[in-house]
Input
Amino acid sequence: MKQIDEQHEKLFEIADRAYKLLTNDFISDKYDKIIEIIGELKEYTLFHFKSEEEYMLSIGHRRFLSHKVEHENFIKDIDNIDLYKIDSNQDQSVKEILEFVVNWIDIHILNQDKLIVES
Output
């Protein structure tokens, strides 16, 4: 489980980069950076979810299917981000991405992933 926890730290790093972008008043056009963060978030979570799901299967985690559905919903939410909306209101978009990641960390990682250890 240490490997999974280390992977979770990367999500904290991505959230931190989003926060730093949000609070950076010296960058007037943040669109490319926002798209970069979204891309990294999707790419990394696909890698992380695969690792986590393989681990859950290896230990016979009884909530595997419902956990996998949560992962799939996360990816769908990322895929459904409106890129045109981002360009028209960049700071609000960064706030929404940051809230999305923080909520995921709070609800999923700190609660659902904790159940993996307890199985």
In short: The longest helix spans residues 31-59. Residues 78 and 92 are 16 Å apart (CA to CA). The chain has five helices and no strands.
